[in-house]
């Protein structure tokens, strides 16, 4: 079934009223302006090509956001599948490959103490549950010990990880600037 010209015009008009919301949502999903713009364009195209599937009088924004979310999820799943590489190399190769040494300069890049400093800079509400999870406690055990709801503990650990990622990236950027300057 193909949409009539009037349906196409109606959909274009509705789409123009929610463009800013869709762009903001796409940025929230992707966290990147270029990917967000691609997601918005894919969504707009899908909306226009499926205009006949929209039921007039229903919530157009919800319909459009659902389409965007589904496109994002499908793209994410494709990306994960593409990056999934199964190593079928026999382990004997590595054992019998001679006396080749592999240089690991990870220790010189970031020391454990530097990472510990980043963790120590987290607010107590985030640091304590994060460290307990790091030590192997289960979420429900952490919630019970701290007297907090399970959902609160999960979100605090999640946000602690996100904050640590940002702090780590900033520290690496500062390190790169310092190494370039010297």
Automatic annotation (TrEMBL):
Name all RNA polymerase sigma-70 region domain ranges: 21-81
Kindly give the CDD domains that the UniProt entry links to this protein: Sigma70_r4
In this chain the RNA polymerase sigma factor 70 region 4 type domain maps to 113-164
- Which Gene3D superfamilies does UniProt cross-reference here? 1.10.1740.10, Winged helix-like DNA-binding domain superfamily/Winged helix DNA-binding domain
Keywords on record = Sigma factor, Transcription, Transcription regulation
Q: Which InterPro entries match?
A: RNA_pol_sigma-70-like (IPR039425), RNA_pol_sigma-70_dom (IPR014284), RNA_pol_sigma70_r2 (IPR007627), RNA_pol_sigma70_r4_t2 (IPR013249), RNA_pol_sigma_r2 (IPR013325), RNA_pol_sigma_r3/r4-like (IPR013324), WH-like_DNA-bd_sf (IPR036388)
Question: So what family is this one in?
Answer: Belongs to the sigma-70 factor family. ECF subfamily.
What's the name of the protein?
A: ECF RNA polymerase sigma factor EcfG
């Amino acid at each position: 079934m193909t949409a009539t010209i009037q349906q196409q015009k109606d959909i274009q008009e509705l789409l123009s009223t929610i463009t800013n919301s869709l762009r903001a949502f796409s940025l929230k999903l992707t966290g990147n302006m270029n990917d967000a713009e691609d997601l918005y364009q894919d969504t707009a195209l899908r909306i226009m090509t499926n205009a006949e599937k929209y039921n007039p009088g229903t919530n157009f924004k919800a319909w459009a956001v659902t389409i965007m979310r589904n496109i994002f999820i499908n793209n994410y799943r494709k990306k994960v599948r593409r990056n999934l590489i199964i190593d079928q190399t026999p382990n004997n190769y590595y054992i019998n490959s001679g006396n080749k040494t592999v240089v690991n300069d990870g220790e010189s890049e970031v020391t454990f103490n530097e990472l510990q400093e980043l963790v120590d800079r987290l607010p107590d509400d985030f640091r304590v549950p994060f460290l307990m999870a790091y030590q192997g406690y289960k979420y429900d055990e952490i919630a019970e010990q701290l007297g907090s709801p399970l959902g609160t503990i999960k979100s605090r650990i999640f946000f602690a990880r996100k904050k640590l990622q940002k702090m780590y990236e900033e520290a690496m950027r500062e390190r790169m600037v310092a190494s370039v300057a010297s």
